[in-house]
Amino acid sequence: PKQRFAGKTAIITGAGSGIGRATAIKMAREGANIALFDLVNERTADVERKLNQIRKGCALAVDVDTSNPERMEAAVKKTVEHFGGLDIVFANAGINGSIGPIEELSIEDWQRTLNVNLTGTFLSLKYTIPHMKSKGKGSIIITSSINGNRRFASFGFSPYSTTKAGQVAFAKMAALELAKFKIRVNVVSPGAISTNIDQSTEPTEELESIVIPIEFPEGQQPLADGPGKPEDVANLVSFLASDESSHITGAHIVIDGAESLL
Ligand code: NAD
């Protein structure tokens, strides 16, 4: 494979599974050193082993909850000390979180989803930006979703959809703020992708009481028979992380096989 990331270091959050995992494998094959940020140790250790088979010493698994400020600050510090710098941040960790009718969601349900998906994204930028500024260059990619931006028919997903819309606004603000430092910020919105994300869904008991007002062909994609693959998103994210996209910032790119056009 081409070596677009030779000598570069990337932080990937949610690297233990799905889209983050596929992106870590792709970028390692193309020469990157990668800090794998995730909560789930065993899965992340597997990815670390796989990457070290691709190139010895290129991976560092870091056990961190992206929504925890102290842990995130320490994890970024550890990464930069270990690899000697930072060039790419993929703020990708996310959960479906609690789903249910709005009046049945507890404040804890609501805040947990916001903490992981929104605050986790904020912290992923907050602690990494100084390191890219000192290099005079950087690329940040954020994983949003079509859910909350292009389609609104996942009933019960109001906290999730809110965070996914918020990430797009945050990415655009960050792109403007960081342009003069040559740090690019882009946001990708996948449609349905085959990953473990459903394990992060916490339905409330009252879910059955949601009245679904219209029939919606959830997860259908005109371009494919089923959902997309994590590798599809990894290809896009790698392009945005690389110098091939050097004039692209503040862009919101949908990758959904036309699902959101249905
Ligand atoms: P996944 O569950 O397979 O992987 C997500 C990873 O993030 C997991 O390994 C999980 O342990 C980790 N994670 C969750 N909370 C964390 C936290 N607080 N701190 C650190 N790590 C944490 O799911 P995925 O589909 O690969 O999800 C990646 C991103 O893609 C998410 O932001 C999700 O919202 C987004 N997305 C997914 C789909 C889809 O259909 N799979 C569609 C659109 C957007």
Keywords:
SDR family oxidoreductase, 262 residues, binds nicotinamide-adenine-dinucleotide, globular, oxidoreductase, two-stranded parallel sheet, NAD(P)-bd_dom_sf, Rossmann fold, alpha/beta, SDR_fam, oxidoreductase activity, seven-stranded parallel beta sheet
Characterise the protein shown here:
The chain starts with 8 loop residues before the first strand and ends in a 7-residue tail after the last strand. It has one domain (9-261): Rossmann fold. It contains 7 helices and 9 strands, in the order βαβαβαββααβαββαβ. The chain has 262 residues and is of the alpha/beta class. The chain has helices at 18-29, 41-54, 69-83, 107-126, 129-135, 158-178, 230-241; strands at 9-13, 33-38, 59-63, 88-91, 97-99, 138-143, 183-190, 201-203, 252-255. Helix 1 crosses helix 7 (230-241) and helix 4 runs parallel beside helix 6 (158-178). Nicotinamide-adenine-dinucleotide (NAD) binds next to helix 1, strand 2 and helix 4.
Write the layout of secondary structure elements.
Layout: E1 9-13, H1 18-29, E2 33-38, H2 41-54, E3 59-63, H3 69-83, E4 88-91, E5 97-99, H4 107-126, H5 129-135, E6 138-143, H6 158-178, E7 183-190, E8 201-203, H7 230-241, E9 252-255
Parallel strand pairs: 1-2, 1-4, 2-3, 4-6, 5-8, 6-7, 7-9
Helix pairs in contact: 1-2, 1-7, 4-6
The structure holds nicotinamide-adenine-dinucleotide.
